Amino acid sequence: MTEVDYYELLECDRGADAGTIKSAYRKLAMKYHPDKNGGCKDHEAKFKAVSEAYECLKDPQKRAAYDRFGHAAFKNGGGHGAQDFGGFSDIFESVFGEFMGGRAGGRAAARRGADLRYDLEITLEEAFHGKQTEVTIEVSAACEPCAGTGAKPGTAARQCPTCGGHGKVRAQQGFFVVERTCPSCHGAGQVIADPCTACRGEGRVDKPKTLSVNIPAGVDEGTRIRLSGEGECGARGAPPGDLYIFLHVARHRIFEREGTTLLARCPVSFTTAALGGTITIPGLDGEPNEIRIPAGIQSGKQIRQRGGGMPVLQGRGRGDMVVQIDVETPTRLSARQKELLQQFRETETGEECPQSKGFFAKLKDVIG
Questions:
Q1: pLDDT band at 338 (very low <50, low <70, confident <90, very high)
Q2: Is 182 flagged in the annotation as binding?
Q3: Using CB atoms within 10 A of its CB, is residue 323 exposed (0-12), middle (13-18) or buried (19+)?
Q4: Quick one: which H or E segment has residue 289?
Q5: Which residue in 313, 316, 270, 264 sits closest to 291, CA to CA?
Q6: How far apart are CA 357 and CA 350, in angstroms?
Q7: 143 in a known ligand binding site
Q8: Is 353 marked as a binding-site residue?
Q9: How buried is residue 286: exposed, middle or buried, by Cβ count under 10 Å (0-12/13-18/19+)?
Q10: Fewer CB in 10 Å around end: N or C, the chain?
């Protein structure tokens, strides 16, 4: 299941402060509020998504849990590979419990597998259309001979004699009792006397894994896709971590991108700029975009083509295409062309180029 990162939804960096997150939420909430969009279902869904993201990230404790566990922090036994938390108190303990002594008398939870990162480069066309692709990673998986227990087949782990299966030991220091993770079983509450030879008691081995990744249309540079439960296998049957796919969009030969807007620099001849005309620029969807050049256009002028840009991620509609006109001065002229241009220059009055006329008039006033 593809889940969009909360920071991506709010269009914020992961290190953004509370004020920045609040400001981003207000802007998006106003943009997608159903009352302002005629009850549009897609805008309503987007509004709910950004509201959910803000509810999480505005709370420092929830944000800390989300930064560590992702969406799995708020799932209670649901979804493939999601870590099973009994409630937010369990999340808080998982994040801060090591500093606060943990739950008294309780066995330390089995160590969850590490989250993994995979960087995937895609083309701008693939970001436009979306795609289904496969990635192959080297990741730890449950050992088959011991079924992930770490114990030699036919044997089993036994209760740790040091901590009595609690996973923690206590020591008296003056008036205080200090509770620490058991040094013998490292908090598992069990020890393996006869470890599996295939995994050396780890319960997991490294092996390649091929995964299918769904890249939705409209993704941008840095978009993060989470594959729940596809990270490193947890030790001795512990829950697995998650795999995060970070997308990188390759530089395009024609277009640059700003959000859902596509920008293109288009050189046109000075005659087209002077007389006007029409140019055709194919979009990323292959459809032609006819751009009308008004007569007398100046270099650097931008023309906007509505709906010619990138799709809106998890929404409907598309952004715009913006074409910047660069008037090109000819460098290779025939004798006839030079003759015609000379004739044109002889007919100039200065009114043809008001900007030039105005500049030199001001310059004359300055010089005196």
A1: very high
A2: yes
A3: buried
A4: strand 288-293
A5: 264
A6: 6
A7: yes
A8: no
A9: exposed
A10: C
Q: What percent of the chain has pLDDT over 70?
A: 86
Per-residue pLDDT band at 339 (split at 50, 70, 90): very high
Stated length of the chain: 368
Domains in the chain, ordered, with CATH? 256-367 (2.60.260.20)
Tokens of 110: 């089995």
56 is known to lie in a ligand binding site: no
Does 199 show up as a binding residue in the annotation? Answer: yes
Structure confidence by residue, pLDDT tens digits, 177-234 = 788 888 888 777 888 888 888 888 888 888 899 999 999 999 999 999 999 999 988 8
pLDDT value, residue 205: 87
Rounded Cα distance, 203 and 56, in Å: 35
Q: How many Cα atoms are found within 13 Å in the side-chain-facing hemisphere of 288?
A: 6
For residue 266, say whether it is annotated as part of any ligand binding site: no
Mean pLDDT of 251-267: 95
Residue 267 structure tokens: 């050189």
Residue 192 confidence (pLDDT): 86
Q: How far apart are CA 96 and CA 116, in angstroms?
A: 22
